Amino acid sequence: MRNESRTDRTSRIPRANENRVSASLGKVFLVGAGPGDPELITVRALRLIQQADVLIHDRLVAPALLQESHRDALLIDVGKRPGHHAVPQQDIEALLIHHARQGKQVVRLKGGDPFIFGRGGEELASLRQAGIDTAVVPGITAAAGCAAAAGFPLTQRHIADSVCLTTAHYSDEQDHTHWASLAANDARTLVFYMGLSQLKNIRQQLILHGLAADTPAALIENGTTDCQRQVFCSLQEIDQIADRQKLRTPCLLVVGKVVALANTALHQDPAQAGQIEALSL
């Protein structure tokens, strides 16, 4: 966030009525924190963070956003890491219900958008079943933020007329992806969330089902943040390039012709495939 005092920073923000909770009735806001850069938070989301009595947040939320909470707010980290869920999902939902029933204004702060691979739908269903008043505040999802930060669109006339947001990671460790459908249209941009550990399978399945091996691809690590790294390559190289460059989560994979628009010259020179760029945003 910019180096401004809280008074200076917030005085410019319109103060809409958020139906502040009464002493006997709480409310939960499922809030998207955006893709990483704290400057990409929405005005409403920032206001709710500043007003929250309880802030229950994921690990990918920018620390600068947590610092916007008021001094008496209770902050609870329920962040999940690959292979390690310190707080099970059902316990997160129980926390939301518990604090709302204490008459608190609760913000459930999630990276990206709550309803795009954020399990926001599950939390909303549990809150509704418990009779908790709930509102959803959307955020910029990683697909939009990372593509913009890497310098290419997700759709483009005459190149890509649709985009598919998907994942190759499932809770039961089984592969439920309909690969034939994903590979069937080379005018569609494919965005894989949580796919770093599945790159070999993604490559094999897409090529097996007919997507050209030389389809442009991008791997974007820590997208929109000061430590963003991005790799441009072809589909047939994604897993080898990721290993070579030691990419780490969070890392988004984008496959499609639009990726070539980020750096046309790079994709015209196969010798430069796998070039990595570090950005200062």
* Dominant shape: elongated
CATH class of the largest domain: Alpha Beta
- How can the largest sheet be summarized? 6 strands, mixed
The computed structural class is alpha/beta
| Number of DSSP strand runs | 13
pLDDT averaged over residues: 87
What does this protein structure show overall?
The chain is an alpha/beta fold and 281 residues long. The protein folds into two domains: 6-137, 3-Layer(aba) Sandwich (Cobalt-precorrin-4 Transmethylase, domain 1), CATH 3.40.1010; 142-278, 2-Layer Sandwich (Methyltransferase, Cobalt-precorrin-4 Transmethylase, Domain 2), CATH 3.30.950.10. The chain contains ten helices and 13 strands. A hairpin with a 7-residue loop joins strand 10 and strand 11.
Descriptive keywords:
Cobalt-precorrin-4 Transmethylase, domain 1, six-stranded mixed β-sheet, alpha/beta, 22% strand, five-stranded parallel β-sheet, disordered N terminus, 281 residues, Methyltransferase, Cobalt-precorrin-4 Transmethylase, Domain 2, elongated
